[in-house]
Design a protein that fits this description.
The chain is built from twelve helices and 19 strands. The protein is α+β, with helices and mostly antiparallel strands. The strands form three sheets. Strands 1, 2, 8, 9, 10, 11, 17 and 18 form an eight-stranded mixed sheet that branches. It has an eight-stranded mixed sheet with strand order 6-5-13-14-15-12-16-19. It has a three-stranded antiparallel sheet with strand order 3-7-4. Helix 11 crosses helix 12. The chain starts with a strand and ends in a 5-residue tail after the last helix.
């Protein structure tokens, strides 16, 4: 099998890249190790930056998002029982975010790829990337019980943190930067209307809490918990009780409870692999970087990567110049590190660290109070939350 761009992974990064290339007239083949049902059901991110929304629309993948997604013009910060809203459009010149789950993005892109795009092979396990430093890289994969080879001009590694693509970068050329946080998130999905019309980020002495949503009838909520927490050890009632304590306010706001349909613990970590390119292999999304979910950057960073790669490949075809391909890693990493910085800032702003001193606790509150009382501080948060430029 041969194509121009071999794409490993049918998450949002791989699927969007295939879509962008198809619309530009560049052939690709997508290899996905899981089946279609898994790809369309796995729960991940749910906040789309303004730039991500604009790209999906431009790619012809925004119809259902525009119909069912929830535009949010701000977030609420809570601390010491007080509520402070950050107005995104007023601080950024009109930008906002959209609540639309990654599962739905993938469903839309899968449907478009199968209807209009190149081959998308499910249950096709990539085994190795070979010859990345040559002009004819290959992806060895297993599909329908036999091994095969995908020959291509370029390989896009969109196969996540545990995939094979990053392993093809020689260890001597790799640099890894990472941080593991001493807490995680206990998250639930619940069949109940959200208790607030925008996301609520709450800092409490007992730990962080987040009120989010997936739709007008489904709530997504999180609690800061120790890293070793087993979700099964928390009863539904205990989770709701703790959410109520941490989200409590001085006014008459109330948390609405409902049936919990899903419960899990998410670890918190930051990870960056440099470079994001080796020869004709290009890493994108979680294959190259991970952020803690506090800043809602993971999916959006993946979109930024593949937009940058698609533009570079089109530029190479149209001009013969590899200038944009050569600068791919540097271009992406500038945006990646800004997102890492913002995600770290949001995480350390809102999560009391285990063993934190009273001095450190007061500093957290002082930082939050600065955002609440300073337009400049709110503008910095709003600009980062709604998205760094894709150019």
């Amino acid at each position: 099998m041969r194509t121009t761009v071999g794409i490993i992974g049918a998450g949002p990064a791989g699927l969007l890249l295939a879509r962008l290339l198809h619309r530009a007239g560049i052939a690709s083949v997508v290899l996905e190790s899981r089946d279609r049902a898994y790809v369309e059901q796995r729960q991940r991110a749910g906040i789309l930056e303004q730039g991500t929304v604009d790209i999906l629309r431009a790619a012809g993948a925004g119809e259902r998002m525009d119909r069912e997604g929830l535009r949010h013009d701000g977030i609420e910060l809570r601390f010491d029982g007080r509520r402070h809203r950050v107005d995104f459009p007023g601080l950024t010149g009109g930008r906002a975010v959209t609540v639309y789950a990654q599962t739905e993005v993938c469903k839309d892109l899968v449907a478009l790829q199968l209807e209009e795009g190149g081959p998308l092979l499910f249950e096709a396990e990539a085994l190795a990337v070979e010859g990345a430093e040559t002009g004819t890289p290959r992806v060895r994969f297993r599909h329908e019980g036999r091994e095969d080879v995908l020959e291509c001009d370029y390989v896009a590694g969109c196969d996540g943190f545990w995939g094979v693509a990053r392993k093809a970068v020689p260890a001597a050329l790799s640099r890894v930067f990472e941080r593991t946080y001493p807490f995680g998130w206990l998250g639930i999905l619940a069949d109940v209307a959200p208790s607030h019309d925008e996301l609520v980020y709450a800092r409490h002495d007992r730990g962080f809490a987040l009120l989010s949503m997936r739709s007008p009838t489904v709530s997504r909520l999180y609690l800061q918990v120790p890293t070793e927490t087993d979700a099964a050890d928390w009863s539904d009632e205990a989770i709701w009780d703790e959410l109520e304590r941490r989200l409590a306010t001085e006014d008459d706001w109330r948390l609405q409870r409902g049936p919990v349909t899903q419960k899990s613990v998410t670890p918190m970590r930051s990870f960056v692999h440099e470079p994001m390119r080796h020869g004709r292999l290009f890493l994108a999304g979680d294959a190259a970087h991970i952020v803690p979910p506090t800043g809602a950057k993971g999916l959006n960073l993946a979109v930024g990567d593949v937009v940058t790669l698609a533009r570079a490949l089109v530029h190479r075809r149209d001009t013969g110049s590899e200038e944009l391909l050569d600068s791919y890693s540097e271009t992406c990493l500038r945006r990646v590190w800004q997102a890492e910085r913002f995600s770290y800032d949001m995480t350390t702003l809102l999560h009391p660290a285990p063993g934190a001193t009273p001095f450190e606790d007061r500093l957290q509150v002082a930082r939050l109070d600065r955002i609440a009382t300073s337009r400049a501080a709110r503008t910095d948060l709003a600009e980062a939350y709604t998205g760094f430029p894709l150019d």
